[in-house]
Amino acid sequence: MEISLHLLNRIDAEPLLEFEAENRAFFEKSVPSRGHAYYTLRGFSESLQKLLVEQEKGFSSFYLIKNEAGKVLGRINLVDIDKVNSIAEIGFRIGEDSIGKGVGHQALTLLIQSDLPVKKISGKTTTVNKASMKLLEKNGFKQTGIGEEEFELNGEKMRFVHYLWC
To answer: What is the pTM of this model?
Structure first.
C-alpha cells in the first residue's frame, strides 16, 4: 500500500474528525480518552486551530498519513520541537483498519527521510504496546530506559518505555 504524509491543514478538518471518530474506541484501549467534547464539531475545530497555531510557530509539525485515494489512515507528529538542542518528540496513531499493513513503518520512514528540523527524536510508548515498540525499533530508535512510575489504563498496569533516534 502506497502512503504519503501531508502537513496538517485547515482543509483536513472533516476527514480528520471522521478518522478520529471512527477509531475512538480502538485508540481508547491504549491511550486515555480525549473526552466527548473533542469529537464534537466545535471541540474538534478548537483543537485543530490550536494545533495549526502551534505548527505555524514552529513548535510542532503535524502530518496526516493518507493512502493513494487521500483517505486518512493515521497521524504522525513531531511535537515540542527544540531547535536549540535539535530534538523533538514523536507521536503517532494508526487507524485500526491499517494496523499490521506496514503503514506506521512507511510513515515513520518517510518522516525520518524528510527535511527534519531536528537531529534527534525522542519517543515513548507503554510496556504493553508491543506494536509501537516494534515500530520504533524497526525504524532505528534505541530504547533508553523504562520509567519507574507504574500506572493503570483500562485495568492493565504499565510503565513508559523511552526511545531515542539520532
So the answer is: 0.92
